[in-house]
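STRUCTURE:
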């Protein structure tokens, strides 16, 4: 088993343990195993995303039992409610009944985040600004949520704390300032690990530039303050803007000189997409 397959297996083990079906073996063993015709229905305007996670929920129950023959035709496709798009397949009744809720939950979550992210991306692309997620993800669902952001045209800020060193307010407070916090992370001797500094005012930005820091997160800067900060930007430096940015106020932060905008809203505030699974006896 490869690393990806093992990671998925561990993830689904937790999902199905939460569903607590193992307490009633009689019920599970009593479910009929005859094949049923299934229809997956997409009932909102959306980008379909997460079919690989949908499929693997059933394969966890019975390895290798399921694949969607034309999955690539649907994954990443924009559909309208009026189109009444459906994906048809067959599965044993016991498998589809047992796995459908988990499979649908994952597909709906992924499609919701992908569709929402794409709305941010379309607006930000007018200024060539990248849209990033954050680590504000649902525990146990980070893999799916990060996947969904990418599927919507966004980019992942970082998967875990060690992907890059981010100096935040608590670091500066504990170590005694920005320079001391920077010295701590330099002392870790991770030669290729970049450092990002979260700053909250122009004085901190100036100090960071003097320390030759290359990556800055302008946290909770107003659009007016961002415009001032951009005037100080040096060649080779990147500016990420973050803090309270939503789809509704995004346009105000599309300031020339900003490289990226990160928003936790992508993963925790995406509107729910309506997807259903119906099946009948052959």
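SEQUENCE:
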């Amino acid at each position: 088993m490869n690393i990806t397959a093992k990671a998925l297996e561990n993830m689904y083990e937790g999902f199905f343990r939460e569903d607590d079906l193992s307490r009633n073996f009689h019920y599970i063993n009593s479910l009929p195993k005859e094949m049923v015709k299934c229809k997956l229905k997409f009932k909102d305007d959306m980008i379909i995303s997460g079919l690989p996670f949908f499929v693997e929920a059933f394969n966890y129950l019975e390895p290798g039992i399921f694949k969607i023959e034309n999955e690539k035709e649907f994954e990443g496709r924009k559909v309208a409610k009026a189109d009444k798009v459906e994906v048809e397949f067959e599965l044993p009744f016991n498998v589809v009944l047992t796995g459908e809720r988990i499979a649908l939950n994952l597909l709906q979550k992924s499609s919701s985040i992908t569709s929402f992210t794409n709305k941010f991306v379309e607006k930000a692309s007018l200024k060539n600004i990248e849209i990033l997620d954050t680590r504000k993800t649902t525990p146990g669902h980070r893999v799916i949520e990060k996947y969904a952001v990418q599927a919507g045209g966004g980019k992942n800020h970082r998967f875990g704390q060690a992907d890059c060193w981010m100096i935040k307010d608590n670091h500066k407070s504990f170590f005694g300032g920005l320079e001391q916090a920077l010295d701590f992370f330099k002392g870790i001797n991770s030669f290729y690990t970049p450092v990002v500094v979260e700053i909250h005012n122009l004085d901190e930005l100036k100090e960071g530039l003097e320390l030759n820091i290359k990556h800055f997160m302008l946290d909770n800067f107003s659009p007016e303050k961002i415009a001032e900060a951009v005037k100080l930007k040096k060649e080779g430096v990147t500016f990420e803007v973050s803090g309270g940015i939503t789809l509704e106020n995004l346009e105000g932060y599309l300031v020339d000189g900003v490289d990226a905008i990160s928003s936790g809203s992508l993963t925790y505030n995406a509107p729910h997409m309506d997807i259903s699974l119906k099946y009948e006896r052959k």
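REMARK: The CA atoms of residues 50 and 107 lie 5 Å apart.
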